């Protein structure tokens, strides 16, 4: 599978599931997608997953008064911080 196909697969999966991944298992789902993108070396997929984690965090940011939403927001932000993308060397 080449990286273009993988990127499309990841983007399709994220587009369909991102609205449903805002629960306790969402952090694990995003982490699995991130690790799969890292293993394949697909930087576009990594960026897509990282962007979806950031967007999910923004959606939860307004609900931080709710303890469950706050815990999920903190978990997503922690995951986002761990998703560093090193620059490529030429």
Automatic annotation (TrEMBL):
This is Uncharacterized protein. It comes from Comamonas suwonensis. The lineage of its organism: Bacteria, Pseudomonadati, Pseudomonadota, Betaproteobacteria, Burkholderiales.
């Amino acid at each position: 599978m080449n990286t273009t196909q993988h990127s499309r697969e990841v983007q399709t999966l994220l587009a369909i599931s991102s609205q449903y991944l805002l629960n306790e298992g969402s952090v694990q789902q995003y982490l699995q997608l991130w690790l799969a993108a890292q293993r394949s070396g697909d930087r576009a997929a990594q960026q897509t997953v990282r962007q979806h984690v950031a967007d999910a965090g923004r959606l939860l940011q307004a609900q931080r008064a709710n303890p469950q939403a706050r815990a999920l927001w903190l978990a997503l932000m922690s995951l986002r911080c761990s998703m560093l993308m090193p620059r490529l060397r030429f």
